[in-house]
Design brief:
Organism: Actinoplanes nipponensis
Order of helices and strands: HEEHEEEEHHEEHEEEEEE
Number of helices: 5
Protein name: Acyl-CoA thioesterase-like N-terminal HotDog domain-containing protein
CATH class: Mainly Beta
Domain Acyl-CoA thioesterase-like N-terminal HotDog: 24-103
Radius of gyration: 18 Å
Structural class: alpha+beta
InterPro entries: Acyl-CoA_hotdog, HotDog_dom_sf, Sec_Metab_Biosynth-Assoc, TesB_ACOT8-like_N
Largest sheet: 12 strands, antiparallel
CATH topology: Porin
Shape: globular
Number of domains: 1
Helix content: 10-25%
Strand content: 35-45%
Number of strands: 14
Length: 277
């Protein structure tokens, strides 16, 4: 089991340069894309002069190994309210990921109005914890993907019956283990990055005809952070599949706090390849 704060920690090794280690505790087939994006986000947070993240947009350029990575962060623009940071993650001289991160100041005056309403789902204490088994694995692309070490880091409470997904939409309560939330807003935002990233593929896969086996690595990911979540154990994650065709899969996802407030939203495109029977 991995600790999210420890496993995304970065060490400053120079001006705008950082180093981190990709932990095998966050493995599916390889390192989870949202976990790699979280390392980039932590490096941006270490470099930023403003206190909280507003968004991250990243592209996955090559597969990372469970080893050290080098990170370079460049300040592209800074004002009193917002800061733009460019991040490059390399491993053994090979570019693994690029990201654009926005940071913002506290106390920015603006409208306060709830534009999105939560789905009518039961609270987490009324839902049974889900333990992934081979039957579920077959609905999440491949057994290797579904049973990777990554899932030990999460407590999952799915709202809908996994054999009868609600159209292209899946709701789940997610709690990270061993620590459920974090005081540092840059660390806590990693919960949302990972939850949004890993919620999209199942939402697409379960809507497809049974028996299809494929691999679908992410080629990009975007997450917008609307409000810092309160210190609560659970996030409600709603994921939706939007398209499958021409070798691509896509979807969107969002996270909410216990009171239904929208905390983050995002989307991803995945490159799909069918596996031989």
């Amino acid at each position: 089991m991995g600790d999210l704060e420890d496993d995304t920690a970065v060490e400053r090794v120079g001006d705008g340069r950082y180093r981190a280690h990709v932990s095998a505790d966050w493995a599916l087939v390889g390192p989870v894309g949202g976990y790699l994006a979280s390392i980039a986000l932590r490096a941006a947070g270490a470099h930023a002069s403003l206190p909280r993240p507003a968004s991250i947009s990243c592209q996955y350029l090559s597969r990372a190994r469970f080893d050290a990575v080098d990170i370079e962060v460049v300040d592209r623009h800074t004002s009193r309210s917002a800061q733009s940071l460019a991040v490059e993650v390399t491993q053994h001289g090979r570019l693994v990921l690029t990201a654009q991160v926005w940071a913002v100041a506290e106390g920015i005056a603006g409208p306060e109005h709830r534009l999105s309403h939560p789905p009518p789902v039961p609270p987490p204490e009324q839902m049974a914890e889900i333990v992934l088994d081979p039957a579920v694995a077959n609905r999440i692309a491949t057994t290797a993907t579904a049973t990777g070490r990554f899932w030990r880091n999460l407590e999952l409470r799915w709202v809908a019956d996994h054999s009868r997904p609600e159209g292209l939409q899946i709701h789940s309560w997610v709690k990270f283990r061993p620590r459920a939330y974090f005081k540092d807003p840059w660390v806590d935002a990693c919960r949302e990055v990972i939850s949004i990233d890993t919620g999209i593929l199942p939402a697409v896969a379960w809507a497809l005809p049974g028996g299809a086996r494929f691999v679908a690595p992410s080629i990009d990911l975007y997450v917008a952070f609307h409000e810092p979540p309160p210190p609560e154990d659970y996030l409600l994650v709603t994921a939706r599949g939007t398209a499958a065709g021409a070798g691509l899969l896509s979807g969107t996802a969002e996270t909410r706090s216990l009171d239904g407030t929208l905390r983050a939203s995002g989307g991803s495109q995945l490159l799909c390849r069918m596996l031989q029977a």
